[in-house]
């Protein structure tokens, strides 16, 4: 019930936030499940052993997963991906509000900006900060999702589920192992968010100004379908530029996993070892060529343009 002065009580605000998080979690879970086979294939392509190629492309890869692992194999790792949506959304929601306030406070400290409000660029910065904080808070779940996703029916069974994977990695490899690949993930946020924003705004302005595809002269706003198309194009561009960092992140997540050599890129049956992000880039290009940095790009592009550019 609202108070007499029209201000909503704290309980109402909390309930509204909870409803938003639940609705966002359900929507996110549905969208991620819809593209789960593409997401799994992308990760398998990113890390597969170059001396034992099983997945040669999108169609062949999906057929191979279905043939060797069946229906369940298409959705391996999706449970962990869905489980992190609500905590990720909650942290991102709170972080965005705090980052917006902090950035606005700093901006208003500049001479002449005392009464300024958040601009689109400042909101972009706040969104990037919130994305990095939320990603960092839920990164261990993403790390074990990568390993659960890579496990196949033929590979040694080391992880039985989310909590077993988290506890096993923590016990056998130490707490720092839960953040393997964190640095390229953080760096990747910068070009992705920046290009996503700039390409979307540029496309939108061009469409309104040029009026292509039968747009009427009086049209000053884009339709929902056109805006979604602009968002998909912007997301694809951003993801493509940042994609090598995603490949390196996935490969670094496999380091230290004693059964990784049987399923991921490496020298024969030797264990995959990188000393850091730069070393991972160097060894990947040295042993597999520059094209290895874009393994899995096709299913990832289909996924991005279809549902969720941030997945």
Helix and strand layout, with pairings?
Elements: H1 10-34, H2 36-47, H3 58-74, H4 78-83, H5 85-108, H6 120-137, H7 139-150, H8 162-173, H9 182-210, H10 224-254, H11 277-288, H12 297-306
What does this protein structure show overall?
- It is a multi-pass membrane protein.
- This is Mitochondrial adenine nucleotide transporter ADNT1 isoform B.
- One of its GO terms (cellular component) is mitochondrial inner membrane.
- The protein is mostly helical and 311 residues long.
- It has a domain at 31-84 and 138-151 and 159-306: Mitochondrial carrier fold (Alpha/alpha barrel), CATH 1.50.40.10.
- Helix content is 67%, strand content 0%.
- It is built from 12 helices and no strands.
- It has helices spanning 10-34, 36-47, 58-74, 78-83, 85-108, 120-137, 139-150, 162-173, 182-210, 224-254, 277-288, 297-306.
- Helix 7 packs across helix 8 (162-173).
- The longest helix is centred in the last third of the chain and has 31 residues, at 224-254.
- The chain is globular.
Total strands:
0
Work out the strand percent: under 5%
Q: Which structural class do you get from the secondary structure elements?
A: mainly alpha
Global geometry: globular
User: What's the CATH C level of the domain at 31-84 and 138-151 and 159-306?
Assistant: Mainly Alpha
Topology as H/E string? HHHHHHHHHHHH
* The CATH fourth-level homologous superfamily of the domain at 31-84 and 138-151 and 159-306: Mitochondrial carrier domain
